Amino acid sequence: MLTESKGIRLEHISKIYQDPKTGKDFKAVNDANLVIEPGSFVTLLGPSGCGKTTTLRMIAGFESPDEGEIYLGNEAINELTPNKRDTAMVFQSYALFPHYNVFDNVAYGLKLRKMDKDVIRKKVMDILDLVELSGMEGRMTNQLSGGQQQRVALARALVVEPSVLLFDEPLSNLDAKLRVSMRTEIRNIQQRVGITAVYVTHDQSEAMALSDQIIIMNKGVVTQIGTPQEIYYHPADEFVADFIGEANFLKGELVSKDGENGELDISGCRISVENAGSFTVGNTYTVVLRPESAVLADEGQLPCKVVMSCFMGSYQNYHVTVGDTLVKITDFNPKHKKIYRVGDMAYVKFDACDIHII
Predict the structure, then answer these.
(1) pTM (two decimals)
(2) Are residues 236 and 255 in the same domain?
(3) CA neighbours within 13 Å on the CB side: how many for 158?
(4) Among 221, 240, 259, where does a domain finish?
(5) Is 183 left (phi over 0), alpha (psi -120 to 50) or beta?
(6) Same domain, yes or no, for 86 and 167?
């Protein structure tokens, strides 16, 4: 099975709801513009209430945008009901039929399309083989584990051969270990089938592991779109930097620049930076420094005082103060390194390419 995948385009999409407490209108999604390429795996990521699920439901047809247009391929689909759209949804709750066995759950959409019984049987058995559920077609869904139920839900969505597969936090009901293995399976199946996938989650590690592109949303607004590497290393603002992984934020004045290179004054120390091209000398900016991008040393850029030193096995976890700012440091493989203790004076050391101005 190789699906003819289609891209998705959202042009100036907004969704307006009424706040039940105040009676005032608010935009759950505000002027969203997205281009999702055919065959790509894209994740909508953000905290609760950011608009990611509403966006997914508008693509599926369960909600209608109040402004803007949604395209599937080159077709405008705002007026199409969910069953008329070339999409399929995998729900958080699985939404399996408890009185049907595995075969009949997966075959349900094909029977609605009044396909020939032999064709249905072949398609269902092929898809069960794809999701590694061969031999379980006669079981009732309440006899399956959570991971197996999730695979049935995935098979039921895939068997109708949609151009776009939509996922609404599909792994949130599974335990942590199973979530990791299932996200790997979902990604492998998506790549083998070649389908366009749009996935909603609030779990950053899930988004990083699965995605070709991540769309960060905050308060109804698309804040940043990029690959996992772009989002992590070049966050657009403090919200994105803080939401994806851990980040230290240091304030500094840009005192000089030469092309893309420049120097910042942080707590009286001059720090070299590499992404200063679009910033103005004399202004104060925030610098993002990831905990794993820095180490403690006897010489370095920023003098500091150690306020916490904790051995975590694969890394030494430090908290230090640079002036009045707390900085977290994750120093990996500390076995043969100097260990700094609480109260020690040291330096935060890092490469110029590992800090990012926002």
Answers:
(1) 0.88
(2) no
(3) 28
(4) 240
(5) alpha
(6) yes
